[in-house]
Each structure stands twice: as structure tokens, then as C-alpha cells.
Amino acid sequence: DTAVSQTPKYLVTQMGNDKSIKCEQNLGHDTMYWYKQDSKKFLKIMFSYNNKELIINETVPNRFSPKSPDKAHLNLHINSLELGDSAVYFCASSHFTNGNEQFFGPGTRLTVL
Amino acid sequence: AQRVTQPEKLLSVFKGAPVELKCNYSYSGSPELFWYVQYSRQRLQLLLRHISRESIKGFTADLNKGETSFHLKKPFAQEEDSAMYYCALGDAGGYNKLIFGAGTRLAVHP
């Protein structure tokens, strides 16, 4: 399937733990994004990478660290998880030259207890 | 500040009724506006963009710079239109940054 995929789909963990969410796209895109959707369904950009380089960093706590090993992958690592981190996290990708047409992954629902 | 406002959290209509999902924006430059849609159990996907001025699945949206609006319209709603709709503003100077509104859930009843 040609798409953006995320793992895991669901993640339940305790406060204080460290966790990672993985994202992969096979669309041949050069730009990838992480969004956070809160309980009110509000969707907000967190990070964007173009060709493995960070180009958007939206005042996200430094407990969140994105890592892009190559153009097709953008992983999100979260240290010392807090209750407020509970949300759905969406990965997306696009061509840099057509960056407003973004293709989204299915989302990862993170629940911090 | 750049902002997208969707004033309605929920819009409930009957099949065959006209639909208008409201979107207003605040942007100092020349805006690029989009509508994204998320059907139940599906991914968020692009529905239409103001530049292309096209009709997708019967939906249209006209950019009104005077009123800073980009409302989404369909003359006759269908049950399969039920979904979450997000208006988004493309920040041309911000490396493809999309600013989303809070979303409006459209429920079309038989």
C-alpha cells in the first residue's frame, strides 16, 4: 500500500515513562510532519523535517525529540511523559514544493495514566 | 496573528438540505486556504484548495478576502458527507506550515 504508516496505533503508558512513535512514508516525499490533536479535536503542527533537516519547531517542550534517519522516516520520541501529553499524534508527509497538500497517517492515540 | 476559526463544532442537517461550513481566517499576507476532511475510521485527507477553484464531491469553497472567509458549501447534502471537516491556512513563509481550525463535525441524517 502506498501511504503514510504509524506504529503503534494505540499506546498506553504511565507518567514519567519514555516512549517512541514511528512514522514511515513510501510516497517519495521529502518533507514530513508531526501534529498533535487534543481532546477537543484541535490539530496543531509540532515539527517538520525536509530531507532529514528540522524546518519547523513549534514551541514544543524539549521532552519531545523528533528523529529523521532518512527522508522516508520521522520518529517521535517523548521523555518523561506527562498527563497532558495524552492526545492523538498524526504524522504527515508532502513534497516540499507542494507542502500544503499533506498526506496523513492514521494517527497514534497516546494515553498517559 | 495567523488564525483559522471554525465557529461551529457540530452542524446537523437532513439529507438533501444545503450545507455551509463556516471558516474565517486571520493572515497578513496572501493566504492559501484548504479544506481537509476526515471520514469515520479514515485518515485526514485534502478535500479542496482555493487555488484550484474546483468542485469535489459536490463541495465548493470561495475565498472572500474582504470578509476573510473560506466557507465550504454543498447544495444537497448526502449521508456519506458525514465527517469532520477542517479548514486550514497555508503559511507561505513558514515552510509549508498548515494552520488548522478546530474542525466542524457534519452529521447528515436520513
Counting DSSP H or I runs of 4 or more residues, the number of helices of chain A is: 0
Taking the sheet with the most strands of chain A, its summary is:
7 strands, mixed
pLDDT averaged residue by residue of chain A:
91
Spans where pLDDT lies below 50 across 5 or more residues of chain A = none
Shape of chain A: globular
**What is the number of beta strands of chain B?**
11
Distance between the termini of chain B: 41 Å
Q: How many strand elements of chain A?
A: 11
N→C terminal distance of chain A:
34 Å
Walk me through the structure.
- Chain A has about 110 residues and is mostly beta strands.
- Helices cover about 0% and strands about 55% of the residues of chain A.
- Chain A has no helices and eleven strands.
- Chain A has strands at about 5, 10-15, 20-25, 30-35, 45-50, 55, 65-70, 75-80, 85-95, 105, 110.
- In chain A, the strands form two sheets. In chain A, strands 2, 4, 5, 6, 9, 10 and 11 form a seven-stranded mixed β-sheet that branches.
- In chain A, a hairpin with a 2-residue loop joins strand 5 (about 45-50) and strand 6 (about 55).
- Chain B has about 110 residues and is mainly beta.
- Helices cover about 0% and strands about 45% of the residues of chain B.
- Chain B is built from no helices and eleven strands.
- In chain B, the strands form three sheets. In chain B, strands 2, 5, 6, 9, 10 and 11 form a six-stranded mixed β-sheet that branches. In chain B, strands 3-8-7 form a three-stranded antiparallel β-sheet, with no helix packed on it.
- In chain B, strand 5 and strand 6 form a beta hairpin.
- Chain B is globular and about 40 Å long.
- The interface of A and B includes residues 41 and 45 of A.
